[in-house]
Inverse folding.
């Protein structure tokens, strides 16, 4: 191999073929093109003309240059050129690729696997053996059976099926695998190892580096600063919403990331930006979310990361009920910090939204739980109706209740109460007895110093035992409860403050009240202490919530708080009876530290996204195109191909000769050629409006490409490749449907563009305006500035939210909702399409579901963007796209389908 700067040749002797190009030039110059046969009618007259000598015409110079270029490409391709060749030490040794495959690799997964693939392809091209070790493996026994040096194509096949895992990598275990690999008698003595790292330090890094460098050169590839992963610590709820902390390795440049909070139905509840300052390792994000919406929150994630560590799932412990403390009608007599309401409120505040007001104001706030202390007794029908309707009434005893009971009690009470240690003493102060297994307080630890000095007593009866949740050591009921209608009444037979017992001064008190809150729904349920948790839905390495894969193990309830994500206990939502708990990758102590650069025996390099590139295939492809071009030109020059009579020859030559950029340049011109007009008129193509944002335009193209494949697979329509549109200059009448992603900085249209869009709508075209903000702004809420500017430029009829019987939900699939990447948003169409000249169809569809991202697929057919509702919502998004396309192509031909129920009903009556 010889190198000329960044370009090298694996077979340099083949370049001697370039010396033959001058000889080839002379041969081509002297060889004329084949003569063409021309039929001329007056042949007799021509025979009388004296013959003159004919001199052959030489080959045109431009054709000679084309053929010389073709020959030069073939010669250079045979020399096997390589761009940025791998010239590191040991480049001719067998290859061992070690790939970090934990959750922290997900954000750079494409670049990391691309580098691994490039290394294995180089080994395969040179006939070297290779092996692949993953630092996070879902099935350890399966990898152990495949751990050997073999032809590189086997490792390439394994690499194609590898995905990042949802747990941290185990580099200590990877070192053990490397030792096992090297101990095989068939293993080579020396290997060249490429460790493709995510750049994050973990236990076992130095051990792995020592094990790998002992058998040959070790190259460690790490991402550039600023490209390392970001993790999301558990969110903290507050009175206004929630706050969350993001972490990354320190020392990186300033960076902003987008954080989104998603409800259980897939809607985005909050979205905003968190910013890492220059060199900072943490960033904060907070959002204002009302309690009712916060209780529906299912997950919080970093939008641009797509990893399990950048996703935080919420569970039952996250949701907070609204609790109302009933204030006495005449105010409290005790000091504020000594009152019963103060103790009850402080014990409930960490687990609920606590309101403190008179009863009337509390009932208007629709609480889940009402707390009634002795000084605030209310025996009203409103409280009874609240309980009957499903509310929880939490009551505490006191002197008033000891004197006279009422109807809002779970058990009948004796008059006078019970006093320990006084003139009416029955016994000494009593301690609490252990909670029984069927008690909601089961599993709570009893403090040694809690005792009861006074309480109200329950009347004995056959139903008493079934209503007792807690007792004293002598068997006297301390907490009783009864189901009343759809709700509960719970009575603590002591005061809410420390007047009658030490219970309000202990940590057991708030724990018991939290268990009572569970009666208001699953939201406040404490973690069960018995049984075992089973996986319900699992996170994958890319942060997507779905069905668990592989074999999982149950987690004992007592050990769940100590469980760590792994192959058999993946992060996700776990179920135990009616309770739900989240196992997340990151916790409050999670920190990300950059991998050290002084690993034993390693050379650490920064991954810049470019390894060596072999150019042979590219050059041979260009040579083949030039060969086809030469054939077409030769046929045209000999008269066998007549472009003047048929546009096929000219079109074929244009496809071969013009680069892809020529089509983009031609798309900017208002006037188009006849060939392109025929192409657009005879093939169904969808268009998308270019916004100037490369990422949005890329996703729009990928979305319409994915939608076109779905339409091809499910309908009789065969759409072509989508086209980009410059709305100010390009002709748009050829496209039945145009997807228009609207950015917030979109500008108003020029009068000429507005007139062309109005003509397009009147001629039957359909424009889909997508604000891509999950409906957080738009026609029904905060105005979207870009959409307002565009719509103000166009004469569009009045709009209205789409109705359930609209024909758009019947054109192909029966749909009641039209989700995209986001779900649950409003969709707007013309309010009265029957009054237009479009035969009862709407020319515009406006929404914010980000449909293109849900449709978008890559070259391998895999989705490019996550969807909030998972695979089911993605399928509904594709059905939505099919309905949009059928609506654009067929109009209202299925309008009568909305009347089918009435028609069938009439037929059944005949």
């Amino acid at each position: 191999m010889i190198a000329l700067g960044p370009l090298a040749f694996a077979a340099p002797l083949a370049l001697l073929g370039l010396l033959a190009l001058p000889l080839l030039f002379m041969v081509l110059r002297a060889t004329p093109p084949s003569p063409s046969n021309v039929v001329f009618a007056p042949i007799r007259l021509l025979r009388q003309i004296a013959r003159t000598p004919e001199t052959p015409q030489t080959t045109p110079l431009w054709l000679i240059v084309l053929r010389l270029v073709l020959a030069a490409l073939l010669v250079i391709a045979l020399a096997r050129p390589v761009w940025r060749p791998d010239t590191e030490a040991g480049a001719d040794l067998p290859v061992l690729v070690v790939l970090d495959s934990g959750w922290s690799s997900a954000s750079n997964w494409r670049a990391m696997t691309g580098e691994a693939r490039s290394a294995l392809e180089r080994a395969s091209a040179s006939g070297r053996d290779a092996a692949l070790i993953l630092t996070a493996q879902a099935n350890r026994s399966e990898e152990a059976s495949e751990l050997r040096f073999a032809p590189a194509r086997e490792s390439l096949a394994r690499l194609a099926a590898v995905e990042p895992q949802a747990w941290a990598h185990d580099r200590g275990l990877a070192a053990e695998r490397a030792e096992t690999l090297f101990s095989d008698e068939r293993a080579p003595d020396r290997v060249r190892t490429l460790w493709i790292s995510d750049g994050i330090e973990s236990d076992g890094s130095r051990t792995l580096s020592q094990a790998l460098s002992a058998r040959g050169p070790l190259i460690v590839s790490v991402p550039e600063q600023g490209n390392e992963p970001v993790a999301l610590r558990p969110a903290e709820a507050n009175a206004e919403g929630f706050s969350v902390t993001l972490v990354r390795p320190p020392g990186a440049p300033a960076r902003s990331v987008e954080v989104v909070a998603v409800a259980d139905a897939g809607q985005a509840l909050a979205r905003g930006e968190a910013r890492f300052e220059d060199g900072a390792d943490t960033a904060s994000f907070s959002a204002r979310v009302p309690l009712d919406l916060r209780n529906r929150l299912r997950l919080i994630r970093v939008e641009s990361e797509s990893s399990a560590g950048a996703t935080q799932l919420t569970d039952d412990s996250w949701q907070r009920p609204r609790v109302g403390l009933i204030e006495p009608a005449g105010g409290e007599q005790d000091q504020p910090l000594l009152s019963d309401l103060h103790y009850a409120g402080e014990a409930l505040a960490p687990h609920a939204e606590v309101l403190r007001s008179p009863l009337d104001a509390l009932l208007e706030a629709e609480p889940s739980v009402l707390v009634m202390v002795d000084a605030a007794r209310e025996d009203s029908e409103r409280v009874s109706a609240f309980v009957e309707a499903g509310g929880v009434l939490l009551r505490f005893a006191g002197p008033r209740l000891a004197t006279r009971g009422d109807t809002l009690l779970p058990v009948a009470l004796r008059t006078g109460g019970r006093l320990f240690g006084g003139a009416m003493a029955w016994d000494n102060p009593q301690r609490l007895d252990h909670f029984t297994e069927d008690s909601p307080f089961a599993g709570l630890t009893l403090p040694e110093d809690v005792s009861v000095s006074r309480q109200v007593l329950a009347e004995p009866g056959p139903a008493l035992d079934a209503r007792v949740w807690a007792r004293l050591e002598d068997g006297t009921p301390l907490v009783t409860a009864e189901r009343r209608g759809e709700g509960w009444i719970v009575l603590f037979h002591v005061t809410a403050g420390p007047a009658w017992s030490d219970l309000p001064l202990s940590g057991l008190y708030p724990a018991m009240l939290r268990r009572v809150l569970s009666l208001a729904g699953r939201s406040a349920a404490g973690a069960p202490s018995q049984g075992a948790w089973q996986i319900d839905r699992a996170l994958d390495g890319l942060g997507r919530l779905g069905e668990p894969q592989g074999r999982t193990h149950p987690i004992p309830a007592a050990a769940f708080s100590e469980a760590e994500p792994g192959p058999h206990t993946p992060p996700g939502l776990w179920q135990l009876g009616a309770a739900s708990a989240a196992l997340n990758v990151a916790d409050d102590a999670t920190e990300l530290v950059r991998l050290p650069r002084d690993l034993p025996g390693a050379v650490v390099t920064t991954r810049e996204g470019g390894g060596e590139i072999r150019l042979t295939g590219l050059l041979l492809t260009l040579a083949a195109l030039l060969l086809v071009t030469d054939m077409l030109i030769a046929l045209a020059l000999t008269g066998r191909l007549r472009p003047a009579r048929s546009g096929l020859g000219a079109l074929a030559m244009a496809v071969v000769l013009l680069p892809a950029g020529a089509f983009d340049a031609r798309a900017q011109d208002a006037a188009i050629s006849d060939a392109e007009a025929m192409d657009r008129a005879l093939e169904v193509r969808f268009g998308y409006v270019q916004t100037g944002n490369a990422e949005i335009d890329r996703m729009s193209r990928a979305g319409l490409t994915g939608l076109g494949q779905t339409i091809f697979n499910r309908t009789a329509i065969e759409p072509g490749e989508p086209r980009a549109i410059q709305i100010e200059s390009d002709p748009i009448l050829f496209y039945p449907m145009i997807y228009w992603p609207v950015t917030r900085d979109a500008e108003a249209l020029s009068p000429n563009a507005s007139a062309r869009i109005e003509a397009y709508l009147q001629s039957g075209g359909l424009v889909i305006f997508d604000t891509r903000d999950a409906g957080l702004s738009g026609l029904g809420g905060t105005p979207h500035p870009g959409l307002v500017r565009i719509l103000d430029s166009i004469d569009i009829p009045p709009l209205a939210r789409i109705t359930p019987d609209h024909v758009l939900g019947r054109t192909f699939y029966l749909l009641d909702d039209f989700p995209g990447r986001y779900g649950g948003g409003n969709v707007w169409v013309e309010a009265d399409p029957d009054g237009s000249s479009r035969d009862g169809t709407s020319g515009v569809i406006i929404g914010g579901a980000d449909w293109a991202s849900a449709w978008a697929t890559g070259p391998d057919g895999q989705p490019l963007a996550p969807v909030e509702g998972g695979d089911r919502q993605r399928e509904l998004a594709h059905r939505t796209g099919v309905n949009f396309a059928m609506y654009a192509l067929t109009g209202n031909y299925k309008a009568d389908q909305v009347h089918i129920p009435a028609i069938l009903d009439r037929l059944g009556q005949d």
Notes: The longest strand covers residues 255-263. The longest helix spans residues 616-637.
